[in-house]
Design a protein that fits this description.
about 260 residues, alpha/beta, Nucleotidyltransferase, domain 5, 2 domains, 5-stranded mixed β-sheet, two-stranded antiparallel sheet
Length: about 260
């Protein structure tokens, strides 16, 4: 079987949550499989009290109820442990670039913990699958590994399946590089600025990736419509998005 070439550890992880909105929802379970450069692995799985009710629709997906997490620690209580576990590691997952990483970053910010993921390479196994075959995780597991995904939407089962699928993809597609840098480039898509993908970089300039100003320079919009910045800061945008536009605004003020 093809092996992943690692310069440093990589943490494959999966999150179960109260919903799909990174700005509002919370983690109820996280599973992390850390793969070391020598091929050895470590596993960490935690149930987390989200400090909010888990909607029945979410429980129907992952099977975790309010009763299951009532005695579990809050994210703030485990934040430092998780930070240390993933520190100096690259990251991988299934649809992680659009969901798991944005939600994890939000949770760290809500816990008032600074975690810099800007130097992490991120492999989104879903993007390899979509670019090559266009399927879901269960189908990917069946297609690449010839196995049925048992306990789907259990964070640990999904994480284990994701890592196995990646190894099978590397075996199936010899044209894919096996180093993390190249896989990060292949799966990352647009050059994002914030994890919620409200901001992207185009020709070195940070531009909006949503709404009436999509494609326009953030700095130019804030110069033309200063109230737009105020509106964003008061609205339900992700904390990481607000952090990034605040950094842009601060740079603009320093230029004056």
């Amino acid at each position: 079987m093809a092996q992943l070439q690692l310069k440093r550890p990589i943490c494959f992880f999966d999150i179960e949550s109260t919903g799909t909105d990174a700005a509002r929802d919370r983690i109820v379970e996280i599973a992390i499989i850390k793969i070391m450069p020598d091929g050895s692995r470590q596993t960490k799985t935690k149930r987390i009290n989200p400090e909010m009710p888990i909607p029945p629709a979410s429980t129907a997906v992952h099977g975790i109820s309010d009763a299951d997490v009532q005695d579990a620690p809050t994210f703030k209580q485990v934040a430092n442990e998780l930070k240390q576990y993933i520190e100096n590691c690259d990251l991988g997952g299934y649809n992680c670039n659009r969901f798991d990483i944005p939600l994890l970053a939000e949770e760290f910010l809500r816990a008032d913990m600074s975690v810099d993921l800007s130097n992490c390479k991120m492999i989104d196994v879903q993007q390899i699958f979509y670019k090559m075959e266009k399927r879901t995780l269960g189908a990917a597991y069946q297609f690449y590994c010839n196995k049925t995904l048992e306990n789907a939407h259990s964070a640990e089962a999904d994480t284990e399946a994701t890592y196995e699928v990646l190894l099978a993809q590397l075996e199936r597609y010899p044209e894919l590089a096996t180093d993390v840098d190249a896989l990060h480039e292949f799966t990352s898509g647009d050059e994002i600025v914030d994890y919620a993908r409200r901001l992207t970089r185009m020709d070195g300039i940070v531009v909006f990736n949503f709404g009436k100003h999509k494609g326009r320079s953030v700095e130019q919009v804030f110069r033309d419509e200063p109230q737009y910045y105020d509106w964003m800061m008061k609205s339900d945008f992700a904390l990481h998005t607000k952090q990034k536009i605040s950094e842009i605004m601060q740079k603009m003020l320093l230029k004056k």
